[in-house]
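Regression check, S-adenosylmethionine case 282:
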Amino acid sequence: MADFEETLYDAVAQKFRIDKLYFENKTDHQHLMIFHNAALGRVMTLDGIVQTTEADEFVYHEMMAHVPLVAHGAPQHVLIIGGGDGGMLREVAKHAVESITQVEIDAAVVEMAKTYLPNHSAGAYDDPRLQLVIDDGFAFVRDDTRHYDVIIVDSTDPIGPGEVLFSEDFYAHAKTRLAPGGVVVTQNGVPFFQPDEVTTTHRRLARHFADATFYCAPVPTYYGGFMTFGWATDATELRGLAPAIIRDRVERAELNTRYYNADMHGAAFALPQYVRAAMQGE
Ligand code: SAM
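Current build output:
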């Protein structure tokens, strides 16, 4: 049977056996593949890079949704940029929010994920609180006039259509779309192999937000150790909430998670020295 070899890095690569190919095609924006692997379940790739697998997606989606939503405390309006596979939407929909706006550039990712990765969205695309917009996330935040309590940037890596979502202009526009007390979180790669992403993102976020840092979680198929999530807000108190407050909010929200809990919430903001050094550009 054929193998899929990831093309993210020059010098190292991870390989997945394709046990069954469900879909492979060039969409209007990128090369999309969905296949089955005996160890990981269904796997989705875009332009040769692993996006999500059924086996480990819970780590990524739970940590990227619940950390900002629980820290905020009373989110009503949430904006998801990207996230076409639907996993982020599923986790956000567990919260008692009023509206969820999702802006995904590639309609084919949404459609194919609904067909071949149904456990990711788990019906959340039918949620009446959702407004799904097929558009470039950069253009959307530049032109939109509404405000959001939490903005989740569930993007591809900064190659291809996702590149603009790592630009300083994008962060500046995102800030204007935040309600007071709001927070932006971003997908920021694996710092062991992508330290420059930490340096660049930190520099760009710090120019616009009073608190710009990262938190982390290990997602096995994002090879190279734990990944970082960008955290940007002017509400500096959100990061250091007392553990008892987080525990109380998590209990009341009844999230039913497999990775996220109040202890992981607090621990995720502890950063090792090499990440702190990368933040300073060292
Ligand atoms: N968890 C994944 C990761 O870290 O690799 C991200 C998965 S999600 C599938 C990423 C989505 O971002 C894709 O569906 C892609 O089409 C979308 N995307 C890329 N660039 C975008 C843009 N400029 N605006 C909106 N969505 C974008």
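Comparison notes: Residues 15 and 68 are 33 Å apart (CA to CA). The domain at 57-279 is CATH 3.40.50.150 (Rossmann fold). No diff flagged against the previous build.
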